[in-house]
């Protein structure tokens, strides 16, 4: 028997409250809020990504050969790679590239070539990757005094929106859009994407854990967009 409208509404309300409690319980304390696309890692479990240290958000490995960065990054962004892993891989890639101008140019060039290949029939995930990398690159100047990344000409958010429209509902991509627009200037847009991400996040999923870990970024906005009550 299918549930009634009232039953669905009650189940949704219980899930929202449970999710809000889950976020509050799991949210770790981060030392300092910074650029959201760089300073807030994604929870990706054992998924393959670029090599990384254990010292926090800014832990690139000193022995990693940045000449391989573009090729390694593109290889990790396969059609089977889900959005959250793409986001973490690109976050790491941009941090590696921030201190190496040649690696930065090669990385953005490789992502741009993938996004443009095939024109309108290009894989939307390639547009997503370029858009996310572009916006992360723009934040390096706020995180690193030595940043070597030039300001790309693309509108990263527009590319992410195009990917969302082409692929259909994707809570992890919605979360990417929420992060990209998380500044006060775009708060209304960001909250819409955050609401969609939370609505699609399964309990105990990497996305739920990621949003919980990002509590210092969102503050009370998670409760506000879900309508949760204490």
How is this structure best described in words?
Helices cover 60% and strands 0% of the residues. It is an all-alpha fold and 230 residues long. The longest helix has 22 residues, at 5-26. It starts with a helix and ends with a helix. The relative contact order is 0.15.
How many beta-strand runs?
0
Q: How far apart are the first and last residues' alpha carbons, in Å?
A: 32 Å
The Rg value, from CA coordinates, equals 18 Å
Count of DSSP-assigned helices = 13
Structural class: mainly alpha
Helix fraction bin? 55-70%
Unreliable stretches (pLDDT < 50, length at least 5) are: 1-32
Mean pLDDT across all residues, rounded?
Answer: 84
Estimated share of beta-strand residues = under 5%
Series of H and E elements: HHHHHHHHHHHHH
Inertia-based shape:
globular
Q: Tell me the major beta sheet.
A: none
List keywords for this structure.
230 residues; mainly alpha; 13 helices; 60% helix
Brief sketch in words of this structure:
The protein has 230 residues and is mainly α. The protein is built from 13 helices and no strands.
Helix/strand layout:
Blueprint: H1 5-26, H2 36-39, H3 69-76, H4 83-97, H5 101-116, H6 124-138, H7 140-143, H8 156-167, H9 171-180, H10 187-200, H11 206-213, H12 215-218, H13 221-226
Helix pairs in contact: 1-11, 3-4, 3-5, 4-5, 4-6, 5-6, 6-8, 8-9, 9-10
